[in-house]
Amino acid sequence: MLDFIARRLVAIIPVLTVVAVFVFLMLRLTPGDPAAVIAGDNATSDQIADIREKLGLNEPIWTQFAIWIGNVLQGNFGESFFFKKTVAELIAQRVEPTLALATCTLLFAVSVSVPIGVLAAYRQGSLFDRLVMAFAVMGFSVPGFVIGYCLIYIFAIELGWLPVQGYTRIGVNFGAFLERMVLPSLTLSVGFIALISRITRASVLEVLNEDYIRTARAKGLSNRVVLMRHALRNAAVPILTVIGLGIAILIGGAVVTESVFGLPGLGRLTVEAVLSRDFPTIQTVILMFSVVYVVINLLIDISYTIFDPRIRY
Amino acid sequence: MTVATEDLVDSASIAAASTKRKSLWLVALRNPNVIIGGTILLVMLVIAALAPLLGTVNPTRIDPASRNKKPGTEITMRMDDGTTGKRVAIMGTDSLGRDVYSRVIYGTRVSLAVGVSVAIIAVAIGVVIGLISGYIRWLDGIIMRVMDGLMAIPGILLAIALVSIWRAGLITVVFAIVVPDVPRVVRLVRSIVLTVREEPYVEGAISVGTPTWILMFRHILPNTVAPLIVQGTFLAAAAILVEAALSFLGIGIPPEIPSWGNIMAEGRTLFRVFPHNIFYPAIFLAVTVLAINIMGDGLRDTLDPKMSKKV
Questions:
Q1: How far is B133 from chain A, CA to nearest CA, in Å?
Q2: Would you tell me which residues 246-275 of chain A have a C-beta closer than 8 angstroms to some C-beta of chain B?
Q3: pLDDT, tens only, B226-250
Q4: Reported ipTM
Q5: What is the pLDDT of residues B137-184, one digit of tens each?
Q6: Contact between chains at A198 and B310 (C-beta distance less than 8 A)
């Protein structure tokens, strides 16, 4: 097991290296002097010279990469000239809404979509099954921001049940925090629910034909036990895989959803950074999200052993 | 959906697809999903092609006198030749007085063009890289590591990163959406090449001295057609959504081009009072993407039967 984890850790090194090289090259690929690009439009020539010195821009490109990666590994992501802060500070400020949104969405989406998928598989061909499949196709086709605005229109403007936009920090007022998380999480969940329920249905369907399911039924076990313990558990691996891959959709969706609901999170920060061409921030956000994505998928790989003891590494 | 479309190709379905290709296309055309999705898509194509004839005015024409009109309002507009005329703005006007109906209709052109060109370019680049990777063994390792690395960056973020490097424009946005799609096509093509190259007829072709490029184009490439059409359909649907999202965020194609995402971006500030700016383009967007996805499901069921069992 430890051996397996070690091997998987080694395997993500080339992947993250490619990501790091891409992120590093981003700035070098933009037309113009990288130091001037970082410093922004209102910089003095002294500031630009200072940045050039710090990044080692007068050195060969390999040295520049070494300096940059060394800084990143020490948690020094540079300075955002647009926001007048270090990028690390900026990210620390903005991480809470995104983390809250992702957690709420993940909890809600998984707890809704897995039962839906199992039930749809169990009642294959029924009206419920067809509704679930129709919803799945719809969920892929309607963009997140449209769903968001529909929800705002219905629940915030017409019915007035929930606030339209904005964010309250979790430590300030928990009730208000939850109130403002409902619509964004629902919005972001739709695509995720579509994805997971579809895969759950498909993998449970496959398992339901197995001999051990018939045996379990023949023993007189209740439908619930057969479905939850025998079928779902054996169907868990593809479901987990898709949840892991779906994190990419979640991250992309967060960028859009945060903009719709005015949440001051990392997704909103990404858009602001692109609009103001704040490269140190864009680079860091992309690097960070990619690392999170890769690490989550690594953890999911490892967790297969828990759900399926036949998998031994 | 695209997530699961990647590696699940087996030689049986490939062989079936290539031996019975003609009849398979006919079967595909009789699939109800293909018919429904294809018909809606055809309607959208007609709308895009006939945009100037559908009672539209210049979608970029700014008219300060009739800003923010609700759908169905009759507005008086001054023509370019100085005469005035009345017309009913059936979808209202935006905050610059532009006719939302005309913008939505013309937006069909932009969205369909983005979807189709992204799918074609991504598939073309992916096929070339995938063939090289599957066939030239020493390059395989390097190429696939790079592809894995690109896939580790969430798609929309990679597109955003590329837009920030290249600055916004219609062509840069198309390529920014293409790049995250390429690794998925490469993996699909490579997996097919790896299976097919072990087939007896390929070994036979090699043994009679067929040059490599003929081998690729005549014996290997045809096997990729059916799965790539399925994949390309889903890529087109996703590309339309990504373009709309980027434009909506203000980092997509330039705001003066009437795309559905741009119309919605314009409608954001006054959404509470004038939701029509967001809802009308949203309906067109959702219907178009839905139609392409439904068609893709139908194509996959008929052209790629192994896949349809998986999802």
A1: 17
A2: 246-249, 251-252, 255-256, 259, 270-271, 273-275
A3: 888 888 999 999 999 999 999 988 8
A4: 0.83
A5: 888 888 888 898 888 888 888 888 888 888 768 888 899 899 999 999
A6: no
Alpha-carbon distance of B311 to B299, in angstroms, equals 13
**A194, A136 in Cβ contact below 8 A?**
yes
**Residuewise pLDDT in 10s, chain A (313 residues):** 777 778 888 888 888 888 988 888 887 777 777 777 777 767 777 777 877 777 777 777 788 888 888 888 888 887 777 777 888 888 888 888 898 899 999 999 999 998 898 888 888 888 888 898 888 888 888 888 888 888 888 888 778 787 777 777 777 777 777 778 888 998 999 988 998 998 888 888 888 878 888 888 888 878 778 887 787 877 888 888 888 888 888 888 889 999 888 888 898 898 888 888 788 888 889 999 999 888 888 888 888 777 766 666 5
Do B153 and B110 form a contact (C-beta atoms < 8 A)?
no
**Tally of residues, chain B:** 311
Dihedral sign, Cα of residue A178, residue A181, residue A183, residue A185: negative
Q: Which of A18, A157, A271 sits opposite B251 (nearest CB)?
A: A271
Which residue has 């990729």 as its token pair?
Answer: B224
Chain B partners within 8 Å of A270 (Cβ): 157, 160
CB B301, CB B233: distance < 8 Å:
no
Chain A residues whose CB is inside 8 A of the B145 CB are 14-15, 18
Q: B285, B299, B191: which is closest to B238 by C-alpha?
A: B285
- Which residues in chain B (77-136) have CB-CB distances under 8 A to chain A? none
Indicate the pairing of strand B73-78 with strand A79-80: unpaired
- The full set of domain ranges for chain A reads 2-73, 99-307
A11 reaches B (C-beta below 8 A): no
d(CA B67, CA B47): 26
Across the interface, do B310 and A152 touch by the CB < 8 Å criterion?
A: no
Give the helix ranges, DSSP H, for chain B. 11-19, 21-30, 32-49, 100-135, 137-151, 155-166, 170-196, 200-207, 212-214, 221-249, 260-267, 276-303, 305-310
Q: By C-alpha distance, which of A98, A100, A80, A101 is closest to A89?
A: A80
Q: What is the model's pLDDT at position B185? A: 92
| Domain A99-307: assigned CATH number | 1.10.3720.10
Cα B244 from Cα B239, distance rounded (Å) = 8
Residue B229, CB half-sphere, CA atoms under 13 Å: how many?
Answer: 18
